[in-house]
Design a protein that fits this description.
Length: 249
């Protein structure tokens, strides 16, 4: 199960934290590290802080965007030290890890996303996530060191994986592709299709978008959309756009 989890670090500025995160992961049996535009990487400082987990740094995937980091994931969780403007489904680490375990048992892949040391994740990045995770720290001093936050989550994932190993008596059956949850990249394409359609039918004014797309992302994100359902939604949008275009011309 543990190889289905990826840890995504966005725009990390201190290479020492990348090394620290690699070490935290390796102690808990995690191996997939994805770095979105790290400021300094590779680095001797990262290697030193990884102390023995340099293999994770060598195999780390370095990408240019969060979208690239999330390709193929059915479940994306974003970590945040503070509350944001539009409240999102929010879980504590233990409950979040259980969700992650359930997703991988259905054959899915999961990403846990961590933000910048100075500013965390942007609202836009957090809206790419199905669920937010807050480590219930002291509200007067809420922000953990990045690698420490990775350690807390990696530990909870390990506990879930160990207990799944103990209970694994059920035969593994091939999942039905129609009922598989869609991946983050498929969901992203859907949101773009939806946004375009809402502009076409003049429900969304691109000059004054307000928080419409954020609210719709939250709504659809809650629905655990399966592949067949996604095809239906995309079909509805395609037909809607056709008719909208006809009525304009
Ligand atoms: N100053 C930033 C804190 C960033 S800490 C802010 O106000 O958002 C760097 C990263 O560590 C965060 O983006 C998050 O991924 C993780 N992190 C730190 N404290 C956390 C907490 N209490 N709960 C969840 N994630 C946390």
């Amino acid at each position: 199960m543990l190889h289905k989890f990826r840890i995504v670090l966005v725009n990390t500025s201190h290479p020492g934290n990348i090394g620290g995160a690699a070490r935290a992961m390796k102690t808990m049996g995690l191996s997939r590290l994805v770095l979105v535009q790290p400021e300094i990487f590779p680095s001797e400082i990262a290697d030193a802080r990884a102390s023995g987990a340099t293999d994770l740094l060598q195999s780390a995937q370095v990408v240019n965007s969060l979208d690239e980091a999330l390709v193929g994931c059915q479940l994306v969780l974003g970590t945040s030290a503070r509350e944001r403007h539009i409240p999102w489904p929010l879980l504590e680490p233990r409950a979040a890890a259980e969700r992650c375990g359930a997703c991988t048992q259905q054959g899915g892949e999961v990403a846990l996303v961590f933000g910048r040391e100075h500013a965390g994740l942007t609202n836009e990045e957090l809206q790419r996530c199905h669920i937010h995770i807050h480590i219930p720290s002291d509200p007067n001093f809420a922000s953990l060191n990045l690698a420490a936050a990775v350690q807390v989550l990696a530990y909870e994932l390990r506990l879930v994986a160990l207990s799944a190993e103990k209970d694994s008596v059920a035969p593994v059956h091939t999942p039905d592709p129609d009922t598989q949850p869609v991946t983050a990249d498929e969901l992203e394409q859907f949101y773009q299709h939806l946004e375009q359609t809402l502009i076409d039918i003049r429900f969304l004014d691109p000059e004054r978008p307000r928080h419409l797309m954020a609210r719709l992302r939250r709504l659809y994100g809650r629905a655990d959309i399966e592949r067949l359902e996604m095809n239906i939604l995309r079909g509805i949008l395609t037909e809607t756009r056709k008719i909208a275009r006809q009525s304009i011309t």
